[in-house]
Amino acid sequence: MKFSRKILIGFSxxxxxxxxxxxxxxxxxxxxxxxxxxxxxxxxxxLIADFDKTxxxxxxxxxxxxxxxxxxxxxxxxxxxxxxxxxGIDSTFAGLAASSGIIDGSLSATDFGDVCFNYDKAWFAQHxxxxxxxxxxxxxxxxxxLTVLENPNTSSTGxxxxxxxxxxxxxxxxxxxxxxxxxxxxxxxxxxxxxxYTDFSGSSGKGAYPIVLSYASSPADEVRADGQSQTxxxxxxxxxxxEYAGVLKNAMNSAGAxxxxxxxxxxxxxxxxxxxxxxxxxxxxxxxxxxxxxFTEIAAHTYGDKLDLNANRKSWLAKWSAIFE
Length: 325
What we know:
Elements: H1 5-25, E1 32-37, H2 45-55, E2 58-63, H3 67-76, E3 85-90, H4 94-99, E4 103-120, H5 121-127, E5 147-150, H6 156-169, H7 174-183, E6 187-189, H8 192-199, E7 211-215, E8 231-248, H9 254-264, H10 267-276, E9 280-281, H11 290-293, H12 309-324
Parallel strand pairs: 1-2, 1-3, 5-6, 5-7
Antiparallel strand pairs: 3-8, 4-7, 4-8, 4-9
Helix pairs in contact: 7-12
């Protein structure tokens, strides 16, 4: 059989690709490593370049929604994962990730923060009435139509607050509280990004809602030219949220994934958390900028984070969905 030059060239290319594939899956180090994150993950170009230089890998980032959507996507693709490592599975979804078998080994805590309501100080000053000081007040008529929060089915902040309400109001009272919130015309967004940056009036979105479910550290991101923050936190009814990183099971580049997790726990990346993601670094001894600390508070008491979320998630979400959907 006679082969044309074009066919021979194509056949040679296939052989080369095959040889490279053998080398990659054999002894040759895979250069690219893919980190799957939630949508709020921030890693500067300088830090990515530093990781590449110090490890010899080429870091690629894939964003996959809020923490809930991220976890669910990784579960659906666990046989052929969309990346090698993950950042952003939090304490509300860590149990689900573990029971679903998507993590190779264990998750490592990278950062933490308190999920609390924030309010727009300028809005309340303009309208001349006091902002809420507790989550119970959010059901009062004077706050009707002023609150935006996140769907607990898809958002870690939403699920955090749902767990907090179960802890505060009890198994016989939390549903009534949510029914009252619905009557008070709360807006429910699928994720934190939409709620905070689009619908909240105190941030870049300049939306219609002066109260938002966010973090106690969020006011540090809203400091204006006068040196003051436009927002403040309601430190009642908060949930202590921890975020994690880990190696994905069936990862194409598990060695690279381990290098990613190690880097996220290293001094350089840990120091970046306050100013990029407005969270506290999990590694003890990491310095916190003084300017950032001036606008960030830690809740004296948190709720829901000691409950067994993995055992109760399905039941809580079904009841919540029956109220809102």
